[in-house]
Structure formats: structure tokens, C-alpha cells
Amino acid sequence: MIVAACCLAWVFLLLFWGGFWRADQRLAPAAAVPNWPEVAIVIPARNEAETIGEVVAIHKASDYPGRAHLVVVDDSSDDGTGAIATKSGADLVTAAPLPEGWSGKLWAVNSGVVRVDSVAPDAEYVLLTDADIVHAPDTLRRLVAKARRDNLTLVSLMARLDARGLWGRLLIPAFVFFFQKLYPFPWVNAANMPFAGAAGGCILVRRDALREIGGIAAMKQALIDDCTLAARIKHGPPRRRIWLGLADDEVISLRNNQCFNSIWIMVRRTAFTQLHQSWLLLTLAVLGMGFLYLTPLIGLVVGLVTGDVWTAVLALTAIAMMSLAYAPTIRLYRLPLGWVFTLPGAAVLYTAMTVASALAHLRGLGGAWKGRTYG
After folding, report:
1. pLDDT score recorded for residue 107
2. Axis-axis angle for helices 165-182, 260-274 (nearest 10)
3. pLDDT at 205
4. CB 59 within 8 A of CB 89
5. Partners of 70 in the beta sheet?
6. How far does Cα 161 stand from its chain's mean position?
């Protein structure tokens, strides 16, 4: 019965959960836009000396036809990040000491947005991105064209993450798959659906809408700031249209994911927050992950050992549906299709990371990031 229920759950996910698994929300080529609007680019940076020079240089080389002003906010770096950003041609802002009640990144972003008010007051859009994210030369043009063509207030691309090495191949496509399952992109992009999500490495947002929701200060404590911003923009009032897609090579993360510990720390920081710091939701999440991703494997073993043909067939059917769902994300990351069979193993590890996130929050360390800890 449990294996049959698992099969039905995968049927539901494949047919009735927004087609999340298709991984088909992609940014179209740029259309012509009359009078390209001015854009301000804001990059918060804390100890990013390794990447900030390359990131700034690539933004400066953008082929965007309109005016674009680049602001880098140095958030108490001690590795020369600010000097490198200035040398590379960015407008540098040094963030004031972190006030109580703010997350470090959002305080830096807010400092950059305040700077935009004085140096680019006519900017129609703000592009929020990170110091370890590189954009293709035509990415900004395509983002603005998408926003203009479809009357969107917010356009976001989930960057292509580093999937090199064993841990990168095992965990990064699975991370993208689980994110799509949590925030089905087609439903995020549908005006009549309540889902709202964004990816913090690349968010283009109308500046007037950002002001109308109270600016960055309105979400100053958010650890999952990208999805918080998307929800505030979409739900209003007034309600506005947003769009979230997957990047091929338009937006690429330079963050090295070859080390298991790097991924573990990234997930541990926000996983329990994603569950609203609820132990009930944590319990349901652990049970749900086991039910969806381990039941088919256990059922197959039990069916083969006991000679229960129907159990084995149902388990194989569930495994086939799971693999079918995962295949588009594996293709997105240009991996051999055999990697679809690693999803249960990745699910076990992400479940462990989520539990570790809850335990870290219990110790007051759950929001630790770049030398700071947030309650």
C-alpha cells in the first residue's frame, strides 16, 4: 500500500504540480525596446576579493544599449575587496556598521539602493546581483526586454551553479530540482497563482515598485531575502507580475561547490528558516522526503526478496517517474542521464542538512554566514 501511495504521489507531482520538473522557464532573446531605460546595478560584497574584479569588469563590458550605473557596496571587508572594485571601475560605497535588526547582506543592498537615489535618480530598474555571479554581455538587455515585453515588475534568473566534482554533480542539480518543486516556476510566473519566488543572484526589479513595498528596509531581517522580495512584489498591494527562470549561460555562479562542506553550510543556513522554524514542518519534511525518494528503493528490495511481483512493479514504476522528473534538470547541467538515479541519495543528504539546520538554529547558530550569526 505504501509503494502504491508513493506511485500516486509521483503521478500527482508529474501531472498536477505546475510542470515544475520540465525546467522549461528560460529567458528569450532580447527583443527591440524603444528608449532603453536606465538601470542601476547593485552588488553587495563582503570579502569577495577573489571574484569582485572579474565580476565588475564583466558588468562594465555589458552590451546594454541604455545607461547602466554600477554600485558595489563594501560590507566591512578585510581582504581588499573595496580597492579591487574601485580599480575595476565600480562606484564604491562603504557600508556603515551593521545596525541591530538587519541581516548583513540586506544592509549592504540597502546602502547600495540609497546610493542609487543620488547617483542614478532616473534609473527605472535596479539589478540586484552578487559579487560571485557573472553575467553574459547580453543578459541585462534580455532581462529588460523581458520585463518590458511582458509588463513584469520583477524578472529573476536562477544562476547556473558550479556542478563540478562528485559532490557538485550529486548535490547541485538536486538542489535546483528541489527548489523548482518548492517554487514551481510556471506557477510563480502565473499572475493568478499565489506562488512567488526569485533567485538572489539575478533580480531585476522596477525601482518604483521597490519603493512602494517599503524598500529593502521592509524585509531587513529576512534570511531568504530573494523569495521574500518576490512575494512582496507579487502580492502587493497592488498585485504585480513577476517571472522566474533558469539560466543556461546568461548568469553563472563562481562559487566553488566541489567541497561537500561548502554546500552543507549553504543549505544549513536557511533550510530551517524555509520551514518557518517549525519542528512540526521539519518532521513532516523528513517523513515526506523519505516517503517520496526512499520508498521506491525499499519497495523494490522487499518485492524482489519476498517475490512480491506487484510491489516490485509498483516500485519500479515510481523509480521510473522519479527519474523522468529529474531528467530535464540533469540535462540542464549537461550530465549523463545516468545521474537521474542519484536523486534518492541526494535527497537523504539534503534531509540531513535540513535537520542540521534545525539543530543549528536551536543553538543560535542557524543564520551563520560570512562571519556573522543571525537569530
Report:
1. 94
2. 20
3. 98
4. no
5. 41
6. 10
